[in-house]
Amino acid sequence: MHGDEQPCFEAPWQAQAFALAVHLNERGMFTWSEWAEALAAQRRRSGEAGIADRPEQYYLDWLQALEHLLIQRDPATADELRAFREAWVAAYEATPHGHPVHLDKGFEVLAQSE
């Protein structure tokens, strides 16, 4: 846990991952029990791989747990999630510092590289 003087999140993407989990729960994609089970399983996998204590790993595990739950619920396949992840990285890398990232730009960059 963080002390009172420390922020809850070390980076904006961590707050977004947290908010996404809350939103998907509120939309009925999973229960909190299912979420806790998925996150615990992902944390175990990170622990077994010896990476659980890395600074950003906790929220990376949040994202992995969310992906796992979404794949289980079938609103998105693993390939679709991978395509969106790759598009996000491409969009992020193509965006000048301080400007908003637009996902469609990532898909454009990926299409040009094929």
Low-confidence stretches: none
The residue-averaged pLDDT reads 84
In DSSP terms (H or I, runs of 4 or more residues), the helix count works out at 5
List SSEs in N-to-C order: HHHHH
Task: Set down the secondary structure blueprint.
Elements: H1 12-26, H2 32-48, H3 57-73, H4 78-94, H5 103-113
Helix pairs in contact: 1-3, 2-3, 4-5
Q: What are the defining features of this structure?
A:
114 residues, mainly alpha, 2 domains, 5 helices, 68% helix, globular
Describe the protein's architecture and organization:
The model has no long low-confidence stretch (mean pLDDT 84). The chain has 5 helices and no strands. With 114 residues, the protein is an all-alpha fold. It is globular. It is 68% helix and 0% strand. It has helices at residues 12-26, 32-48, 57-73, 78-94, 103-113. It folds into 2 domains: 11-76, no CATH class; 77-114, no CATH class.
Short characterization:
By secondary structure, the chain is an all-alpha fold.
